[in-house]
Amino acid sequence: MKILLHSLRRRSWLTARRPQSHLATASDPAVMSATSAQQQMNMFQAVNDAMKIALETDPTAIVFGEDVAFGGVFRCSQGLQERFGKDRVFNTPISENGIAGFAIGYAATGGTAIGEIQFADYIYPAMDQLVNEMAKFRYRSGNQWQAGGATLRMPAGAVGHGGHYHSQSPEAYLAHTAGLTVVMPSSPKAAKGLLLASIRSKDPVIFLEPKALYRSAVESVPLGDYEVELGKARILREGSDVTLVGWGAQIQRLQKACDLAKEMDGIDCELIDLQTILPWDAKAVEQSVLKTGKLVVSHEAPITCGFGAEVVAELQERCFWALEAPIKRVCGFDTPFPLVFEKYYLPDETRNLEAIREVVRSSR
After folding, report:
1. Which CATH number is associated with domain 39-222?
2. Is the Cα dihedral 288, 290, 294, 295 positive or negative?
3. Residues 246-265: pLDDT tens digits?
């Protein structure tokens, strides 16, 4: 680490401060005019566009990781090295621990580090760097130094054929660590805005990208520079009977469950996408549950100690006297992620529909 920091300080452009333009938000007139034009994008294109804007607006920003020079496994960094050069977009050795350590060291000098872990399943060798260094860097120094310019992107979740080493959702491990921000988008537009906000955040961010959505999720995305506020949930559909909470690729399954509940049973569901896992928007969920009296939380990760357990614990404290039925969790099973039996493992729209029906029955 000492050698790394010493070599970075010798290059003046690396230690330049980030420009004030990164403070602009989508509500600023200049940004509003820039984002008026839109284009159909899938999620990997939206992520690519966010990194392009980050590199254009911040001369200290760099992109690095395994195979990012040619675009990466999912092509999220495609074309960036050709545009910004080998000094700013480059491959690293196959070492998640090294990628995380490099991000911390570079951010500590004032630079903006955008690292990629090729699969979230392989973040575990870097947990010492994330938990004991990245998350605690500012705290242990009494705010004399920090690694707030570090963002680590990583594909996460099921993809249909990944098996137990390429399908895991590790958000609960990461959310247990004070000092980190953990983000998981559910759409291309949200992915771009959340990634730009993450890269410009004053806190280190773990950015989990649902790999199943890289090509399957497509929508109109603003072409300009904009941010989606971290720590804020979004209500995807309003309803009066049941509150559903999810994040990432699970949102698509919950949307289908909402449609089925309305069509088959006349149940009106309110669907909330957390977007940020840590810190999460408990207030938004509380306000919804106070209205509906019922809550279903759903995620891909195993049910035991999954982040859904945190949501349930917090909401029963906030809304106990307003609850009309026990809160339900619909999650992955407590097994290694199965390849052949993935369709049985995933909490699909059918399992979620049954949970919706159960909480409604229990309330009568």
Report:
1. 3.40.50.970
2. positive
3. 999 999 999 999 999 999 99
Distance CA 307, CA 6 (A): 39
Catalytic site includes residue 96: yes
CB 58 within 8 A of CB 22: yes
Contact 180, 234 (CB under 8 A): no
Q: How far apart are CA 245 and CA 264, in angstroms?
A: 21
Name every residue whose Cβ is closer than 8 Å to that of residue 348 and which is 6 or more positions away in sequence.
253
67 φ/ψ sector (left φ>0, alpha ψ -120 to 50, else beta): left
Domain locations along the chain = 39-222, 234-362
- Domain 234-362 class? alpha beta
Whether the domain at 39-222 and the domain at 234-362 fall into the same CATH topology: yes
Residues 289, 324: contact at Cβ < 8 Å? no
Q: Among the options 22, 66, 116, 166, which is catalytic?
A: 166
Q: What is the pTM of this model?
A: 0.90
In the residue annotation, 324 being an active-site residue is answered as no
Tens-digit pLDDT profile for residues 14-25:
333 343 333 333
